[in-house]
Specification:
Blueprint lengths: L1 H9 L2 H21 L6 H14 L3 H9 L12 H14 L3 H20 L7 H15 L3 H14 L4 H29 L8
Length: 194
């Protein structure tokens, strides 16, 4: 499966589509033939990823939404599914839904992730994507605080530097918006200097 997925990145469009469909079918066979296997949640997540790569967002949404309920919600890969689902929602201009999803995901998973050496790197990733979703809703001050929290709490993470930059970006965008309002107010006919 992994070789197919890597080959997809290098293939021509028709071959890429064929390989992605083949990978998705292999993952479907895993879930059908071994429904109680510990690999099933990862197979469902990867099947959703294949669907996204095939521009089949409806199928991807259906697969990823399964992680919002048990038994998949309590699996090891559920935090990654939440991040992937939120990213997909943000691409469809559903940032508020993504922000709510990731707030729930953080409440459910962040503490456990931070204490799990094999998945600890997912905690800052979850928090960072939450901040991105909040930023996309237009709540720049709230997003700025979330980005600052990521850069301060997870200083050794790959997301820390980007979160610090995004925090500054939020401050700049908020200042520009306030400046534009002030300029518009000053340009109104009959506006007083104060």
């Amino acid at each position: 499966y992994c070789q197919q997925k890597m080959a997809v990145q290098l293939a021509d469009p028709a071959d890429r589509t064929n390989r992605l469909n083949s990978a998705r079918q292999a993952l479907e066979r895993i879930t059908a033939q071994f429904p109680t296997s510990a690999a099933v949640p990862a197979a469902i997540l990867e099947r959703a990823n294949c669907s996204i790569d095939l521009n089949d967002t409806g199928t991807a949404l259906n697969e990823l939404n399964k992680f919002k309920q048990d038994p998949l919600k309590s699996t090891a890969v559920a935090p990654l599914a939440f991040i992937r689902l939120a990213t997909l929602l943000r691409s469809q201009n559903k940032a508020a839904e993504a922000a709510t999803l990731l707030a729930d995901g953080r409440a459910s998973y962040e503490a456990a992730l931070a204490n799990d050496a094999s998945r600890a790197a997912w905690a800052p990733l979850l928090a960072y994507h939450h901040a991105l979703a909040v930023k996309d809703t237009g709540k720049l001050v709230d997003a700025q605080k979330l980005f600052e929290a990521v850069s301060q709490k997870y200083t050794a993470s790959a997301e820390a530097a980007d979160a610090a930059w995004r925090s500054g970006q939020c401050r700049r965008e908020d200042a520009v918006a306030r400046l534009q309002l002030a300029i518009a107010a000053a340009q109104k006919p009959g506006a007083k200097p104060e």
